[in-house]
Design a protein that fits this description.
- The chain has five helices and 16 strands.
- Helix 1 packs parallel to helix 2.
- It starts with 43 loop residues before the first strand and ends with a strand.
- The protein has a single domain, classed as 4-Layer Sandwich (Purple Acid Phosphatase, chain A, domain 2).
- Helix content is 17%, strand content 22%.
- It has a six-stranded mixed sheet, with no helix packed on it.
- It has 330 residues and is of the alpha/beta class.
- It comes from Arenibacter nanhaiticus.
- Residues 297-330 are annotated as: Disordered.
- This is 3',5'-cyclic AMP phosphodiesterase CpdA.
- Residues 46-243 form the Calcineurin-like phosphoesterase domain.
- Keywords: Membrane, Transmembrane, Transmembrane helix.
């Protein structure tokens, strides 16, 4: 979709720690402060779920049913899944049918495990994705979906496919250079404030498994923010890591969104094999208010027993079976 509004003046950044068609027209209108009551626009409401792991978690279909039912009961602008959704195989058709039963707009992010039993192209076709990375507009906001599912092999960037990503961390979870340049151009073209969705993290997650491409992505984000009179990229949302966390880097909010299903604790620590399973489906509803606030309404649950604490898992104090409610300013 093509933007027709001029950029906003920069907000006063208030750190609250507790807390997809590409291209733009050259048409512009007046700049305005989003906090001006006379010009206040409608908030954008998003339903977000990630790391469902259909085909790996026995009750994934039931968890998705809970999300679709609640999302359908709300007046949302769109829903989006953050990757590791299902495999592109016949057994997962029930998952896609349920997802597609949602009557509103819906979007996909590719996750590494979506390519466990097929190629990236097969996963995209199964999901109905025309591109593995893309952008779109909704209301006063611009949304970008990135693909961090590349490995480095013999000096080339290679698509994930058929579980080829089980290699050293430095050579996987990569964003290819062509996509980095596309992101730079996409952010140059939009005059809207932007949210980025990805599977892998671009901040500094405590377990050390952030994307090795995070510095290149953050440089593009910082350059976009420093070249305008307003904060162009305001937030990034990811899944993949199955944690509940938030960080703030160069005036950009980075949200780690928890899995719908479980945390991988390894053999001997889980309530279901190597999985510390959540009692309930975990997902969130995100409100983007043009006046300058991001609000996350997260679902709360608890671990099935035996819990990571009961199993004396070394990271138990950091683990959560919920997505925290948060309200931050931009």
């Amino acid at each position: 979709m093509r933007s027709t509004s001029k950029g906003r003046r920069q907000f006063i950044n208030n750190l609250g720690m507790g807390i997809v068609a590409v291209g733009m027209s050259n048409t512009s209108s007046f700049a305005f402060s989003p906090k001006s009551k006379a010009l206040k626009k409608r908030s954008v409401e998003v339903g977000f779920i990630t790391d469902l792991h259909h085909g790996y978690c026995a009750d994934a279909q039931e968890r998705l049913e809970v999300f679709i039912k609640e999302a359908s009961s709300r007046k949302l602008d769109f829903i989006i899944q953050g990757g590791d959704f299902c495999h592109p195989i016949a057994e997962a058709q029930e998952c896609m049918d349920l997802w597609n039963s949602y009557q509103g707009e819906k979007y996909h992010v590719l996750g590494n495990h979506d390519m466990d039993k097929g190629s990236k192209k097969e996963a995209m076709d199964f999901f109905g994705m025309e591109s593995n990375y893309y952008s779109f507009d909704k209301g006063d906001f611009h949304f970008v979906v990135l693909d961090g599912n590349y490995i480095s092999k013999d000096g080339k960037y290679v698509d994930y496919g058929h579980a080829n990503f089980y290699i050293e961390q430095a050579n996987r979870s990569l964003v290819n250079p062509e996509q980095i340049e596309w992101l730079r151009q996409d952010l140059e073209k939009t005059n809207k404030q932007t949210i980025i969705f990805s599977h892998q993290a671009f901040d500094e997650i405590w377990d050390g498994w952030s994307s090795p491409s995070r510095f290149a992505v953050r440089k593009v984000i910082d350059d976009a923010n420093n070249s305008t009179g307003f904060q162009k990229v305001i937030g990034c949302f990811c899944g993949h890591h199955h944690v509940d966390d938030h960080s703030y880097i160069n005036k950009v909010h980075y949200f780690q969104m928890n899995s719908a299903s479980y945390y991988y604790v390894g053999e001997g620590y889980g309530s279901d094999g190597s999985r510390a399973t959540y009692k309930d489906a975990i997902f969130a509803f995100i409100t983007l208010d043009p006046s300058g606030e991001i609000t996350i309404e997260g679902k709360k649950s608890s671990f099935k027993e035996p819990t990571p604490s009961q199993k004396n898992h070394p990271d138990a104090p950091r683990l959560s079976a919920s997505i925290s409610d948060r309200k931050v300013s931009f």
